[in-house]
Write a structure and sequence with these properties.
331 residues, alpha/beta, Peroxisomal Thiolase, Chain A, domain 1, 11 helices, 13 strands, binds oxa(dethia)-CoA
Length: 331
């Protein structure tokens, strides 16, 4: 095995569907207002995939852009990891469908499930494959079509989510750059606060589960809110300890984009200025596993992430799960 060099991000890409649903559009569907959604969440609009578009389609588009950015051919990929809570189907995995779409025939491929923390888990996993020397070119994707598991009659949840995909290419870093620390956590005890109850082996699809609307997202918003603020703070601090960096040395925070009040509360606890925090949830809502890689791609393309800067990515979500990574940017 080769030496334990960190993975660096050598390319990023993202893709969101064209169709926009604004808060005003939602006012016509459920009893809500633009004012309530904007002040309680920060969300103004979200993207929704057309009926004939699945998670793998969004993932494929984001991946093509990431490969182009990394100047890499799909045939060079050794591994594809897709983080998603909304796979095309149980199996084959969405990663295998993306492999076919890209023509990445030399790559192993699998999905991982850690809900909204999925991308943080996946990039941490990808980093380990690079560090051990087992793989050289790893594609890590966060992709969701949450619109398929939203109950459009439930105003508590339907205003929150959107569809999209983001991808990164990981390759070995030449020096001590790239993903310099990672931290992951989980709390299955409180998993019931955010679930999609039916459609798996516990409650397979049946007329009863459909009539009871058990295939849709169920969330205890207040509990998840409190958990999210604590999880963001804890994850960021733990990743910092492992990196031997102080908060002052963090140049940019890219958090999971669920609610602006969660992000602001966590930034306040961390004493991090909001000038250093990337926010795009006003445009896309909560895209679960896709939110961090889409934000990462946008921040990179806008020139916010400069060579040598320390980028902190943080996620939290169903499971419950949480995690963070610190990346010394190399591009
Ligand atoms: O990615 C990880 C997963 N998700 C999250 O991170 C989400 C975490 N939670 C949250 O972001 C917030 O808890 C929500 C945005 C979901 C809810 O915000 P809140 O400030 O906690 O509101 P609430 O649930 O306490 O509801 C306040 C009121 C309620 O009415 P009453 O009981 O006070 O009369 C709700 O029925 O707002 C009502 N409400 C709405 N009103 C208009 C709930 N949803 C809506 C809505 N429009 N869409």
């Amino acid at each position: 095995m080769e030496s334990l060099n960190n993975a660096k991000i050598s390319g990023t890409g993202s893709y969101v569907p064209e169709k926009i649903i604004t808060n005003n559009d939602l006012e016509r569907i459920v009893e809500t207002t633009d004012e309530w959604i904007a002040t309680r969440t920060g969300i103004k609009q979200r993207r929704i995939a057309d009926d004939n578009v699945a998670t793998s389609d969004l993932a494929t588009e984001a991946s093509k852009k990431a490969l182009l950015d990394a100047n890499l051919s799909a045939k060079d990929l050794d591994l594809i990891i897709v983080a998603t809570a909304t796979p095309d189907m149980s199996f084959p995995s969405t990663a295998c469908i993306v492999q076919k779409n890209l023509g990445a025939y030399n790559a192993a491929a699998f999905d991982i499930g850690a809900a909204c923390t999925g991308f943080i888990y996946a990039i941490t996993l990808g980093n380990q494959f690079i560090r051990t020397g087992m793989y050289h070119n790893v594609l890590v994707i966060g992709a969701e079509t949450l619109s398929r598991i939203i109950n459009w009659e439930d105003r508590d949840t339907c205003v929150l989510f959107g569809d999209g995909a983001g991808a990164v290419v990981l390759q070995k870093s030449e020096n001590d750059c790239g993903i310099i620390s990672s931290y992951l956590g989980a709390d299955g005890e409180n998993g019931h606060t955010l679930t999609q109850p039916a459609g798996g082996s516990r409650l397979p699809a049946s007329i009863e589960t459909i009539e009871s609307k058990l295939h849709y997202i169920k969330m205890d918003g207040n509990e998840v809110f409190k958990f999210a603020v604590r999880a963001m703070e804890k994850s960021a601090l733990r990743a910092l300890v492992d990196s031997n960096l102080s908060l002052d040395e963090i140049d940019f925070l890219i958090p999971h984009q669920a609610n602006i009040r969660i992000i602001e509360a966590a930034a306040k606890r961390l004493k991090l200025s909001m000038d250093k925090v990337y926010v795009n949830l006003n445009l896309y809502g909560n895209m679960s596993a896709a939110s961090v890689p889409v934000a990462l791609d946008e921040a990179a393309k806008k020139g916010f992430l400069t060579k040598g800067s320390h980028v902190l990515i943080v996620g939290f979500g169903g499971g419950l799960t949480w995690g963070a990574s610190i990346i010394k940017w190399t591009k």
